[in-house]
Structures are given as C-alpha cells and as structure tokens.
Amino acid sequence: MEKPADTQFPIHDLLSRRWSPRAFAERPVEPGKIQRLLEAARWASSCFNEQPWVLMMATVDQPPEHVKLLSCLVEGNKVWAKRAPLLMITFAKMHFDHNGKPNSHAFHDVGLAVGNLVVQATAMDLVVHQMAGILPEIIRTSYAVPDGYEPVTGLAIGYSGDPSSLPEEIRERELAPRSRKTHQEFVFSKTWGETPDIL
Amino acid sequence: MEKPADTQFPIHDLLSRRWSPRAFAERPVEPGKIQRLLEAARWASSCFNEQPWVLMMATVDQPPEHVKLLSCLVEGNKVWAKRAPLLMITFAKMHFDHNGKPNSHAFHDVGLAVGNLVVQATAMDLVVHQMAGILPEIIRTSYAVPDGYEPVTGLAIGYSGDPSSLPEEIRERELAPRSRKTHQEFVFSKTWGETPDIL
User: Fold this and answer.
1) What is the longest distance spanned by two Cα atoms in chain A?
2) What is the pLDDT of residues B76-86, one digit of tens each?
3) CATH architecture classification, B13-174
4) Is the Cβ of A139 closer than 8 Å to some Cβ of chain B?
5) pTM value?
6) B99 to chain A, closest Cα gap in Å
C-alpha cells in the first residue's frame, strides 16, 4: 500500500512517498539495509557536531530482544508494532560533550538524525513509523540508560504490509486521508502571521 | 565545492552530498524552489500530526527584510550568512493544539521538518547551513513572536559558493574534513553500550 502526499508544490519522491503505516509485511529487514539506515542517521548535522543521538535496536530474529523493546511502547502502539521486524528507541544526550552545558537542541538533532534514517529507509522501500508513545521509565530500567540521556521516540521499521491484517479501528486510521496545515498557517515573512508573496 | 560524507556503508546520494557550507554564490533562490522547500517541510511527520513548526523567511531581493533577519543571528554567523540569499528562522510551538499540554517533541519535530527541507534543497542543488547561533530575544521583538513559541534555529540557504571568498579563519573550517562518531558509540542492542552483531 502507498499513500503519497497530496502536494501543492512538487517535492522529491523520497519525501512525498514517506508515510507512517501500521501494517508491516512478515519479511525481515536485511542486515545490509539496517547498516545503511544507521549510516544515514550518522551523517545528520547537529549543533556543534555533537551528534547527541543514541539508537537502541532489536530485530525479530532475536525474539527476546524484540519482545523487550516492544515492552517499552504504550499498549496502543504494541498492538501493531509487534509485527515490525526492526524496532528502535531513540535517545538524546541532554548535555554537550564539549562543555557540559545543557544542549537545548538535543531533541531537535535527534529529529534530524531520524529524518535521515527515514529518507534512507524510503529509498530502500522500507517504511518507518515514529512513535512518541513510549514508556520512559521502563526504557531506563530495561536498558540501564545512564543519567543525562532522555528517551525520545520509538521507531517501527519494516516492509509495508496489508492493512486488512490490522484490527478494525487501526485499519480505519491506516486508510484515512493524510492532511497538513496550509502554508499560510506556518510560513511567515516580515512579521508573525504575514504570508510571503510567493505563497 | 562538494564535500561528500566518507561513509562506511552506502547511503543515498541526497544524504551523502548534504553538508553545511558557509560560502554562497550570488545567485538568488528561484521562487519556485522556495515553494518546494516549504512544501517539503510541510509534509514531515510529527507527534499527533501537530506540525509544531513555523518558518520566518527573508530573501535578498527585499534588502530591509534580509537585514532584519540577519540581525537575529550571532556575530559569528552574520559574517558569512549575509551572503545567503534566503534566510529563515525556525520556531517550535511548545504546547499541543489538541489539549494545551506541553509538547516535549516540539523541537524534535522541527528537526524532522527542517530535515525534509534540507533533502529537498539538496535535490535542487541548493545548500543549507543550520545555525543554533541565534538571538532569541531580538527575534521575539523583531517578529512579534507570540507566547508559546520558541525560536529554534536559523537557516542560511542558497547555491554553493567559492570558499576563497571567506575570511581566512572561516575558510579553514570550510575546508576541514568532516567527521562523525563511530557506530559503536551510538548504536546499541540488548543493553546500553553493547554493539549489535551487524556492526
């Protein structure tokens, strides 16, 4: 199943094809593709090149590890994410290495790294569903997370599957149209709320 | 000038070619390309699809606006960013629209939107230099930023220029090799610090 963005101006195929499905095929993610996902995250930009991201990963071919990572998600996500063959938790290092001060861009830069990973995934016909619905305290305990790191998101990664495999309520969300704010709602020039001439 | 990532595993060209130069050509960014940059940001994913990003933009063909946006950057960035024909400030809406509660993923999701913009830029032969070095209080005043929004970054966007146009100290940074952490430093499985078998 594909669900391309209904764009007002043309954008690159790797961006318009990206979406966040909940139905995954049984096919595992090849190790070589996982390496390339991780490499893509690695080359994101970051404030002071601090690279404040950490990725904890589990694959379905190691069932105890897959179950352990799945247990870090809220119930509403477990229901469908259990079929994703590759799961990750992302973390942000909240202080700079170079001076120990708080890094207010840590979460932002995790977003940049995950964004890279998602582009690479799309280029390899994989899909990624990012989840804010995670259980930080369980994550801290399960993975012995050191002080100074915050869990940010969960990632469910795999090949797109058949929406009919999903429970009814989730299937409806899977098939609902995609929507976004208008440009007028988020792009300004001159002052707050003023739309640029080009829009 | 190009400065592709020295990758350990192959990644998509749009990710390996991306870098953050400080030298810009005089050529302005075509309005049609600006529209596509904004559209790319628009289609990023976000927590609850809240799209907590706002972009304030200024182009060099409106000099007072360009100068106004430039004045929101720290001195070290103004020196080179003044030659970028398209400047932006990004903002995060810190509370959810749907329930008024704090959105802890606001900065993260701005990162995803900017990541999309950068991919689209790279696909159109543009370069983007993201800057944490901004002046939040000046931004708030200059643009009448409402409560509840935080300035996140500045973006300098344009066509790549000749590094020899830069002051010497900046030119050295422009020509320095790119570096990243090893995978072993940020990818774990089973528990914190343990490297997955595939790496």
Assistant:
1) 56
2) 999 999 999 99
3) 3-Layer(aba) Sandwich (3.40)
4) no
5) 0.98
6) 16
